Amino acid sequence: MTASHRRSADEPYSSEQIAALDLRAARLPRHVAIIMDGNGRWAQARGFPRIEGHRRGVSTVRSIIECCSRLNMQQLTLYCFSSENWKRPELEQKLLMRLLEQYLVEERAEIARQNLRFSVIGRREPLGEGVNREIDRTYEVASENTGMRLCLAINYGSRSELADAAQAIAREVAAGRLDPDAINESTIEAHLYTAGMPDPDLVIRTAGEMRVSNYLLWQISYAELWVTEKCWPDFDKDELFAALRDFAQRNRRFGGLSN
Ligand code: IPE
Ligand code: IPE
Ligand code: MG
Fold first, then answer.
1. pTM (2 decimals)?
2. 53, 99 in Cβ contact below 8 A?
């Protein structure tokens, strides 16, 4: 592939292309959050070890990031590893951490090229030196970027996020810097890992489970949910476009009445 080909592939979709995909620019979500599930089932159905499903999942990650960025989304948040995933066999945990580290090393050039902003949400200490080093380096590389924010949820759990926020707020109260009567929804939002980020408009879950698995519980209060039977390694741009088309038809009321 020539350099000029690569650049044109990254250009934002034109309004004609968006219309040809039967999408409406004005009704695209600003922030999509994905629960990338079903890697293990995908592999097992083909007689591969589970880790092969995680490896194939990385290719899906690449194409979906590129697609969302070309659609000018503000943010894409990907659930990579939950705080409950430490319950898995040690070998799978280790291989997942290694894959994550390798992904960050390989993806840095792409993050730079696509001008992606970068964030990680979740408790970082248990991730180990290798993953943490690559997260720090990726933050550095992306520090001046101005495009779509790629947010990776790694060792993320919504309940521990809320517990961490409660601790931080309690410390401010104890130090006399915050009046308990002044605590409101904005105070809590400002102490979440996602402080300053827009709430997801659309949550996509692959592999068919009808649950949220401790993902962004506060932030998805009014998000639209979309579940596909496809496992994450089989998820592709067409499936994403189908979710976006469906999203465009939804009547979001936020507790009010429809217009
Ligand atoms: C999602 O795939 C990736 C992670 C949770 C790390 P799974 O590994 O959960 O795949 P299934 O659900 O077992 O098929
Ligand atoms: C959710 O998937 C976490 C990630 C996709 C990283 P799980 O496979 O861990 O969810 P459950 O256990 O089926 O609820
Ligand atoms: Mg799963």
1. 0.96
2. no
